[in-house]
C-alpha cells in the first residue's frame, strides 16, 4: 500500500463508517417527538423561538434549516430528528480520522511503515469508530431531537482539529487550526457546553508538542493552565462579556437617558474597534503570539454570535419565548440560568439546613435584582423585591464539597448516610412529653418500624426542638464515590461496554437499571440468580449483554497506548476524565434524578471507543508474531469486528429501533383529548 493508497483508503473508509452510521441511524430514528425536551426543541427550532435557559440557538437555527425540507407539518419533527442522525454520523467520520492520526503516532510515519501496518491502522480505526457508533447511549442520542448528538459532533471535530493543529503546529500557517478550533468553541455555546470539555485535551496536545522534556514542575503547571483556560472561556470570557453589555446597557438607558439598546450598540462598537486596532497593531509589531491570541478570542466571539438569535427572536414576541431575553440584561440572566436553584460546588449548605432554620445573625440576604424594560418610563426597572429576599441558612450546616445539598431528597440521602444524629436542644430537655416522643420514635426506628421517609418527616416536625447533625465530610465523599461516580457514571459506562439489564430507570436496587454482562456467575454474584426471571424481564428489548468483550478490547488498547505513547495516553485520559468523572463532580447529582443521565457522558464513551481501536492494533502486534502480517491483519480485524461493533449492533438494534414509536405523541394527544373545550392547561 503506497502513501497515496493509504491517503485514499483513509478517506474511503472514513466515509464508509459515515455511511454505515448514517444508514443505521436513519433506519432507526424516531418519526416524531420523543419524551422530555425533544418536543420543545422541535417547536423552537422549526419556528426559531426561544427555549429554556441556557438556550441552544445554533441548534435551533440548524433545526430550522432541516425543517425546511419537511413535506408537510407532520414531518417537521422527523426532519429535526434527522439533524441528530447526520450530526451523529459525522461524529463517527471525524472519530475514524482521529483514531488514524493517533495510531500513526504508535505505528510510525506513513512513509516508513509496512503495508500490513497501514492496513492494521485503518482496520483498527474502522473497528473503534464503528464500535462507538453502536454503543447504547450514543445511538440513543442519534435518534431524537436533543442537543447531545450535535454536541458530540462538535466535540469530535474539535478533537480532530486539535490533532491537526498538533501535527502542523510548526509548519507555516499551522496556527490556522487553532483559530478554527476557537470558532468551533464559540459555536459550542450555541448547542451545549459539553463541547468545551475538549479544551483540556487540546491544551495537552500543545504542551507535549512544545515541551520535549517533561518535568514534574512543568507538568503540574500544564495541568493547572489547561484547567484555567477552560474556566476562563466557560466562566469568565463570555459571562463577563455579557455582564459588560448588561451593565453598559442599564447605565446608558437609566443614567444617561439614551434609548433602549444604545448601551449594547456602543459596547459592541467598542469591542469591534478594540479587536480591529489590537490585531492591526500586533501584526504591525510582529507580536505573532499575541496576534494569534487576539484572533482566537475574536473567533470565539464570532462563534458565540449565534446567541444574537435569542434577543432578536425574543423581541419578535414569538409564541414560545421562555424568560424573554429581549435585551442585554435579561440575556445575561438567561445565560446564567438565574431561574434555577443555586448549587454550590466547593462550599455551601447541605440538605440538613432545613432542620436548623436560618442563620441567627444574618437570616436574610439580598437576591439578584431582576431588570425589565419599562417602555412607558423609557428605563429598566427592577421588578422583584430583592432586598433581604433570600433566606440565609445556618452556617453550621455548610461544608466543603457539599455533595448532599437538595432538601427535596433528604430521605434518599439517608440511604447513604444512615439516620442523622440529633439531640434535644438544651432549653427543651426538661419537656417530658417531648422526650417521650423522641424516645418512642428512636425505639420504633431501631425495631425497623420507621423508614427514611418517616425519619425525615419526624425531623421536619420537631426541628424547632432538635439539634440535627449535618453529614460529615466523609459521608459526602462516600456519597460522591458510591452514588455520583459509582452509580451515575460507572454504571452507565458498563451499560455501553459490558451490557444492560433493562430500560427501566434504576433506583439503586437489583431489579432495574443495572449493568449486566451475560456471564452467569458474575451476574448472579451482583444481582442474584438470573434463571427464574419473569418472561417480561427476560424479554425486555434493552436486556443486552456483551460478555465484557468491548470492555476488554478497550482496556487492552488503554494499556497498549500507555506502554507505547504515554504523552498521547495522557491527552486521552484527560479527555476521558473531563467528559466523565469531572462532569459528574460538577453536576453534583441528587438521588434520584428524574431520568437516567447517561446521554451527557458520551464524550468519555467516545474516548474509550478510541482505546478499542488501539486494542485492535495491539492484537495485531501480538498476532503478527505468530502469523504472517498480511494474514494477521484480516484475522484480527474480523475477530474484533465480531467482538465489538457486530455484537453491539446485534444486541442493541431492537431497543434502539424507534422507527415505529409514536408513544410521546399519542400520550400528548390523549392528554389534550381529555380536556374540555377551551380548558386552561
Automatic annotation (TrEMBL):
The chain crosses the membrane at residues 12-29, 85-107, 119-140, 147-165, 177-207, 219-238, 258-278, 290-310, 545-562, 569-587, 599-620, 627-648. InterPro entries: GT117_domain-containing, TMEM260-like. It comes from Salinimicrobium catena. PANTHER family: TRANSMEMBRANE PROTEIN 260. This is DUF2723 domain-containing protein. Pfam families: TMEM260-like. Keywords: Membrane, Transmembrane, Transmembrane helix. The keyword Transmembrane helix applies. The keyword Transmembrane applies.
Amino acid at each position: 500500500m503506497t502513501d497515496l493508497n493509504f491517503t485514499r483508503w483513509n478517506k474511503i473508509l472514513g466515509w464508509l463508517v459515515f455511511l454505515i452510521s448514517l444508514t443505521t441511524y436513519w433506519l432507526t430514528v424516531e418519526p416524531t417527538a420523543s419524551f422530555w425536551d425533544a418536543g420543545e426543541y422541535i417547536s423552537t427550532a422549526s419556528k426559531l423561538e426561544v427555549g429554556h435557559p441556557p438556550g441552544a440557538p445554533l441548534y435551533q437555527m440548524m433545526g430550522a434549516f432541516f425543517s425546511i425540507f419537511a413535506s408537510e407539518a407532520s414531518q417537521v419533527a422527523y426532519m429535526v430528528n434527522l439533524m441528530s442522525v447526520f450530526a451523529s454520523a459525522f461524529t463517527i467520520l471525524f472519530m475514524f480520522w482521529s483514531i488514524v492520526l493517533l495510531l500513526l503516532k504508535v505505528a510510525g510515519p506513513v512513509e516508513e511503515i509496512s503495508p500490513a501496518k497501514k492496513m492494521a491502522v485503518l482496520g483498527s480505526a474502522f473497528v473503534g469508530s464503528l464500535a462507538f457508533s453502536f454503543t447504547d447511549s450514543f445511538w440513543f442520542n442519534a435518534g431524537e431531537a436533543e442537543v447531545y448528538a450535535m454536541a458530540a459532533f462538535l466535540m469530535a471535530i474539535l478533537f480532530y482539529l486539535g490533532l491537526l493543529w498538533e501535527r502542523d503546529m510548526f509548519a507555516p500557517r499551522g496556527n490556522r487550526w487553532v483559530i478554527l478550533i476557537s470558532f468551533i468553541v464559540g459555536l459550542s455555546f450555541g448547542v451545549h457546553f459539553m463541547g468545551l470539555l475538549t479544551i483540556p485535551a487540546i491544551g495537552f496536545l500543545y504542551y507535549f508538542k512544545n515541551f520535549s522534556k517533561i518535568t514534574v514542575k512543568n507538568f503540574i503547571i500544564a495541568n493547572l493552565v489547561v484547567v484555567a483556560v477552560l474556566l476562563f472561556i466557560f466562566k469568565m470570557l463570555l459571562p463577563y462579556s455579557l455582564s459588560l453589555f448588561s451593565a453598559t446597557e442599564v447605565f446608558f438607558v437609566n443614567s444617561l437617558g439614551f434609548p433602549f439598546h444604545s448601551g449594547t450598540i456602543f459596547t459592541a462598537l467598542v469591542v469591534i474597534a478594540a479587536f480591529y486596532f489590537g490585531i492591526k497593531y500586533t501584526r504591525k509589531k510582529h507580536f505573532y503570539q499575541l496576534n494569534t491570541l487576539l484572533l482566537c478570542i475574536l473567533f470565539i466571539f464570532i462563534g458565540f454570535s449565534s446567541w444574537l438569535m435569542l434577543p432578536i427572536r425574543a423581541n419578535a414576541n414569538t409564541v414560545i419565548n421562555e424568560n424573554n431575553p429581549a435585551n442585554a440584561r435579561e440575556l445575561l440572566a438567561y445565560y446564567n440560568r438565574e431561574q434555577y436553584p443555586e448549587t454550590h460546588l466547593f462550599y455551601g449548605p447541605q440538605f440538613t439546613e432545613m432542620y436548623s432554620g436560618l442563620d441567627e445573625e444574618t437570616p436574610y440576604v439580598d437576591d439578584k435584582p431582576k431588570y425589565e424594560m419599562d417602555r412607558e418610563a423609557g428605563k429598566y426597572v427592577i421588578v422583584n423585591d430583592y432586598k433581604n429576599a433570600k433566606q440565609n441558612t445556618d452556617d453550621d450546616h455548610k461544608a466543603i464539597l457539599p455533595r448532599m445539598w437538595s432538601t427535596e431528597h433528604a430521605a434518599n440521602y439517608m440511604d447513604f448516610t444512615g439516620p442523622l444524629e440529633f439531640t434535644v436542644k438544651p432549653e427543651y430537655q426538661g419537656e417530658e412529653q417531648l422526650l417521650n416522643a423522641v424516645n418512642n420514635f428512636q425505639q420504633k426506628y431501631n425495631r425497623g418500624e420507621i423508614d427514611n421517609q418517616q425519619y425525615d418527616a419526624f425531623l421536619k416536625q420537631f426541628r424547632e426542638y432538635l439539634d440535627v447533625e449535618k453529614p460529615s465530610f466523609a459521608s459526602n465523599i462516600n456519597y460522591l464515590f458510591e452514588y455520583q461516580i459509582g452509580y451515575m457514571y460507572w454504571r452507565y459506562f458498563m451499560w455501553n461496554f459490558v451490557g444492560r439489564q433493562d430500560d427501566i430507570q434504576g433506583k439503586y436496587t437489583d431489579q432495574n437499571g443495572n449493568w449486566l454482562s451475560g456471564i452467569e456467575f458474575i451476574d448472579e454474584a451482583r444481582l442474584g440468580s438470573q434463571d427464574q426471571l419473569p418472561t417480561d424481564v427476560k424479554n425486555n428489548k434493552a436486556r443486552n449483554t456483551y460478555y465484557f468483550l468491548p470492555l476488554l478490547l478497550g482496556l487492552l488498547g488503554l494499556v497498549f497506548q500507555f506502554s507505547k505513547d504515554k504523552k498521547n495516553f495522557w491527552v486521552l485520559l484527560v479527555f476521558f476524565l473531563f467528559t466523565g468523572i469531572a462532569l459528574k463532580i460538577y453536576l453534583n447529582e441528587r438521588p434520584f434524578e428524574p431520568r437516567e443521565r447517561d446521554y451527557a457522558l458520551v464524550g468519555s464513551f467516545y474516548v474509550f471507543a478510541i482505546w478499542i481501536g488501539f486494542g485492535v492494533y495491539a492484537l495485531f502486534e501480538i498476532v503478527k508474531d505468530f502469523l504472517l502480517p498480511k494474514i494477521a491483519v484480516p484475522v484480527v480485524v474480523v475477530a474484533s469486528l465480531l467482538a465489538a461493533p457486530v455484537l453491539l449492533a446485534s444486541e442493541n438494534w431492537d431497543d434502539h429501533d424507534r422507527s415505529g414509536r409514536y408513544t410521546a405523541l399519542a400520550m400528548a394527544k390523549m392528554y389534550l383529548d381529555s380536556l374540555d373545550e377551551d380548558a386552561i392547561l
